[in-house]
Design goal:
By secondary structure, this protein is mainly alpha-helical. The chain has helices spanning 16-33, 38-45, 49-58, 63-72, 80-84, 91-105.
Length: 118
């Protein structure tokens, strides 16, 4: 799955509650896209429905349960930057890599065709 970064706001400018809200919205959007109820996702992830509701409404969840949810939604690749980025790479290099990847993925719309003059 390819991810795009649509919000240009640097992540460091968000407060912790704002980040948590964005994460919950992303998970809920994907859950709805896959047409799965909260109860069904909780069951598939091996957590209780109450645990999932705490995540959605109170923004509280253990890292282990968060990863289980991401795995069941098949979006665990979103964690790749955290897991696979060597410590030696400076953050500026990471941002450069992301920008280059974004540029490669960008698709341009076809320009207007010139109409023949009659």
């Amino acid at each position: 799955m390819n991810y795009t970064f649509q919000d240009p706001t640097p992540i460091l400018l968000y407060t912790t509650p704002e980040l948590m809200e964005k994460i919950v919205k992303r998970i809920e959007k994907e859950r709805l896209r896959q047409n799965i109820t909260q109860e069904e996702l909780a069951r598939r992830a091996g957590i209780s429905p109450a645990t999932y509701r705490n995540f959605v409404y109170k923004k509280k969840i253990s890292l282990e349960n968060f990863i289980k949810i991401m795995q069941r939604l098949r979006i665990e690749d979103a964690l790749r930057l955290i897991v696979d980025t060597p410590r030696e790479i400076e953050m500026a290099e990471v941002f450069e890599m992301l920008e280059e990847k974004r540029k490669k993925e960008r698709k341009r719309a076809r320009g207007k065709r010139k109409r023949p003059k009659f």
